[in-house]
């Protein structure tokens, strides 16, 4: 079970009190990045035997090594793109204390497996991970980061007698009728209220002169069976704003990449995959590009802006 100390530490690290400044214009003018941050996707820890390519318990040492590496770098924060655990409520108590060792703020995005707990615990997942709500925004370094909740309309994150569960059944049925590849029970969608919030944040960021990076658990582009149910709607929204630069996600452990003009969609590879090789990244953000520095099986690439 989660200790009181671990819970309070997670809650305190869930948001930045003030926007981070980054390295400043002088550093950028000398050729350095505006700022850096760390990325982890799908640790998907559980104290269970491996299955096929997934080595669930090995994520403890992989994440521990990644955090030790992050602590040697000049980074502003670390984000975990969902599926902190694979199953069982007790798994949170094993993996969350590792984040106590991070020297920088930590941000969680929840994935479908984070709700693979007994129904009595569904309402406690946000509290356990220190989140006031599952979608939120935070600023820093001339950017605005928007975190999406793709579990909001789903069959796994909501009680069966809830309105959102019924809405998830309706949406999934329509996708199945249309023969959509992402008509899967392990995907989800967002509400109209969350979509309105996202649209408002994009407009506000544009007015403030901020570039936008969006983070979610589910991919939205290119088309894939793992995609969020609202993928096309979100891609249309993102690409209609020239201050949108990057969408980041996990969920599809194999990873993926798409580009529309100078706007990028990166699916990070799952840390849970492979017995002895890790997967995580450090992103360096510049005025004209983002450098993805992959570790282990993660890809290194340059995203031109």
Can you characterise this structure?
The chain is of the alpha/beta class. It has a single domain (4-304), classed as Purple Acid Phosphatase, chain A, domain 2 (4-Layer Sandwich). It contains eight helices and twelve strands. The chain has a six-stranded mixed sheet. It has a six-stranded mixed sheet with strand order 4-5-6-7-9-8, covered by helices on one side. Strand 6, helix 8 and strand 7 (244-249) form a beta-alpha-beta unit. The longest helix has 16 residues, at 192-207. The chain is globular.
The CATH topology assignment is Purple Acid Phosphatase, chain A, domain 2
Label the overall shape.
Answer: globular
Q: For the residues shown, what is the average pLDDT?
A: 93
Terminal CA distance: 44 Å
CATH superfamily: Metallo-dependent phosphatases
Query: In total, how many domains does the architecture comprise?
Result: 1
Structural class: alpha/beta
Strand content: 15-25%
Poorly predicted regions are: 1-15
Major beta-sheet overview: 6 strands, mixed
> How many beta-strand runs?
12
CATH architecture: 4-Layer Sandwich
Question: What is Rg?
Answer: 18 Å
Number of helices: 8
> SSE string, helix = H, strand = E?
HHEHEHEHEEHHEHEEEEEE
Strand order of the largest sheet: 3-2-1-10-11-12
CATH class: Alpha Beta
Helix residue percentage = 10-25%
């Amino acid at each position: 079970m989660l200790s009181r100390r671990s819970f309070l530490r997670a809650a305190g690290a869930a948001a930045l009190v003030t926007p981070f400044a980054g390295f400043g214009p002088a550093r950028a003018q000398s050729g350095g990045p505006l700022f850096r941050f760390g990325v982890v996707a799908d640790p998907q820890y559980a104290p269970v035997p491996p299955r096929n390519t997934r080595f669930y318990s090995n994520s403890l040492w992989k994440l521990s090594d990644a955090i030790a590496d992050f602590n040697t770098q000049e980074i502003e924060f670390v984000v975990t793109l969902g599926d902190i655990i694979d199953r069982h409520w007790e798994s949170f108590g094993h993996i969350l204390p590792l984040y106590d060792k991070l020297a920088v703020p930590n941000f969680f995005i929840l994935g479908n497996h984070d709700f693979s707990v007994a129904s009595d615990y569904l309402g406690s997942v946000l509290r356990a991970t220190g989140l006031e709500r599952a979608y939120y925004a935070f600023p820093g370094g001339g950017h605005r980061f928007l975190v999406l909740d793709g579990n909001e309309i789903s069959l796994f994150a909501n009680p069966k007698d809830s309105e959102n569960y019924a809405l998830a059944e309706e949406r999934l049925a329509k996708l199945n009728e249309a023969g959509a590849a992402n008509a899967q029970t392990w995907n989800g969608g967002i509400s109209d209220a969350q979509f309105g919030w996202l649209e408002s944040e994009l407009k506000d960021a544009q007015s403030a002169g901020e570039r936008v990076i969006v983070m979610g658990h589910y991919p939205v582009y290119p088309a894939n069976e793992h995609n969020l149910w609202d993928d096309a709607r979100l891609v249309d929204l993102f690409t209609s704003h020239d201050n949108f630069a990057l969408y980041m996600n996990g969920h599809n452990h194999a990873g993926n990449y798409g580009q529309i003009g100078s706007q990028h969609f990166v699916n990070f590879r799952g840390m849970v995959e492979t017995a002895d090789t890790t997967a995580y990244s450090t992103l360096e953000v510049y005025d004209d590009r983002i450098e993805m520095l992959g570790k282990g099986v993660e890809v290194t690439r340059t995203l031109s802006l």
